Amino acid sequence: MPFIINTDSDRAEMLAAAGAASFNDLIADIPEEIRLKKSLDLAPALDEMAVRRQLESLAARNRSTAGYVSFLGGGAYDQFIPSAIRAIVSRSEFYTAYTPYQAEVSQGTLQAIYEYQSLICRLYGMDVANASMYDGATALAEAALMAMNVTGKERIVVAGQLHPWNSSVLSTYLGAAGHSPVVQNSVEGGVGSIASLRGMVDGTVAAVIVQQPNFYGCLEDVEAIGAIAREAGALFIVSADPHSLGVLEAPGAYGADIAVGEGQPLGSAQSFGGPYLGIFTVREKFVRKIPGRLVGMTKDRDGRDGFILTLQTREQHIRREKATSNICTNQALNALQAAVYLSLLGRQGMQEVAGQSLERAHYLAARIVEIPGYSLRFSAPFFREFVLNTPVHPAVIVERMLEEGIFAGIDLSVFGDEGLLVSVTEKRTKEEMDRFALLLSSF
Fold it and tell me: Where in this chain does the record put each Glycine cleavage system P-protein N-terminal domain (predicted)?
């Protein structure tokens, strides 16, 4: 918002209206010991040119994928974003922070959300998608809460290796709601142990969660995990990378009851961590338990197509005891970006992008393991990410590679784990991967 200067007479008028003789009267309830007793240490005022120069100088200190070759992944990926996406979503009728709470929101906004929902359903092979969540982590946590609501059971079992941050959000959500802690299955060879999972899942379990591909990039045995969940009467929740669905089976094809995901790779920039997009899909029989809101298409009295908020299940709209969540917004602009991205690429384009990521990741992995001292930590199949055992600590590699203009990957020791997690998208060229491998050989 613009800064509007208040004159002395403006301030006097406001104080009189508030029934205060001075500004100090307004803050009388704030204890003296925590009040600021000195002037703010502000820099001297600058003209517009000088301010712009200073801000550009500060911005130039950031390291971004605009100037670095990125092998970073772990949930946020350096995907190519077609220029048409920005051209479309930056139109004034779309480029707004307005959240569609009300049923009378514009038909254009509602139609855009409806198109997003339809495309996501096709991608994930599910019946219903909501009008999006905050991000992939909160979508997963809301899925667990929904499973408890549907089944009336308390326990949540995680079948394989979730992203640690997603695990943290999941635990925070469940703990704050007074539910039992999450039960983590053992991980062997980079994937969840099927034998161990069978011993954990019984009639008290509300849902079994799996990330596909998992945090290590490995592919879990989703068919077996889903069968175990169904045998125990638990819901099957899949957190799926949307790009992987260009080459892997959709969650709906192997029996997911709820499928969620992080929508950032579908046309949203990494943006130093957000805003992102939470994908949330369900089987039709659970539609009235879905969190957030749902846009539907109908006919008006003249027979014309129309769009409307069909379900609004937050506590501001319905009785609190019937609310499915307290999510109060959605990521409408990011959802629009995803819809435009999916529309531009289509089925063939998604298969092409996923296929290129798959092939390039395996090419790079094969190059690196030829270098003495390097090996794949896990032998399980992977999509576009893999974990390396390295001859020196991964932090050393990450730091030195920055000097070469490369984001080398994620040092898993920051999560109390081991290895270097490397991700490869369709943007990485053979020359970039060969140079990366050559530089790794110097350690």
Answer: 3-435
Euclidean distance between CA atoms 121 and 423, whole angstroms:
26
Q: Quick one: tokens of 73?
A: 């992944």
pTM score? 0.88
φ/ψ bin of 278: left (φ > 0), alpha (ψ from -120 to 50), beta (otherwise)? beta
Per-residue pLDDT band at 328 (split at 50, 70, 90): low
Residue range 135-140: average pLDDT?
96
pLDDT computed for residue 109 by the predictor: 83
**Residue 335 · residue 132 · CB < 8 Å:** yes
Assign domain 69-81+347-441 one CATH number from 3.30.1370.10, 3.90.1150.10, 3.30.300.30, 2.30.29.30: 3.90.1150.10
Q: What is the pLDDT of residues 270-289, one digit of tens each?
A: 998 889 999 999 999 999 89
Contact between 71 and 406 under an 8 Å Cβ cutoff? The reply is: yes
Residue with tokens 């499915």: 324
The pLDDT tens digits for 189-227 are 999 999 999 999 999 999 999 999 999 999 999 999 999
Among residues 124, 126, 191, the alpha carbon closest in space to that of 158 is found at 191
Report the relative pairing of strands 305-312 and 293-299 from DSSP bridges: antiparallel
Cα torsion at 332, 335, 339, 345 (round to 10°)? Answer: 150
Strands in 375-376's sheet, in edge-to-edge order, are 375-376, 385-389, 420-423, 410-411
From 202, 75, 80, 186, select the one nearest 139 (Cα to Cα).
Answer: 75
Please count the other Cβ atoms lying within 10 Å of the Cβ belonging to residue 324. Answer: 21
The predicted pLDDT at position 94 comes to: 78
Domain residue ranges in the chain = 8-49, 69-81+347-441, 83-341
CATH architecture of 83-341: 3-Layer(aba) Sandwich (3.40)
pLDDT at residue 330 greater than cutoff 80: no
Entry field: residues in the chain: 443
